[in-house]
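WARN retry 2 of 3 for item q-0093 after timeout on previous attempt; input resubmitted unchanged.
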Amino acid sequence: MVPVSGGMLIADLVRHLNLPLLVVTRPNLGTINHTFLTTYAAGQLGLSTKGIIINNFPQEPGPAEAYAPHLLDSLCGPLLGVYPHAASSDPWEIIDALAAKLDREPATTAVLRILGAMT
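OK item q-0093 returned
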């Protein structure tokens, strides 16, 4: 429901471009509500949500963060990945760390296929 320009929302842009959604969410307290409302609104608008990714997951999650992946997968899923917090202020180092993680993840090919980026 984020405005892009004037009265146009991201949802309008997605519909206009006929794209599926990939919801990238945070692991913190409140993410269950935020992510559920996002996927629910998308469904009400007739948009296809391919899955959810949790980004910036802490090394040592608290109780809310630890349980979030399970709940998000069951309520809004499928959960396509949980990506760790990258401890760097350099954006290129963060990109390199996440790219290396994607290369090591056996599920990366499946996720790309689900998103339509691979055949």
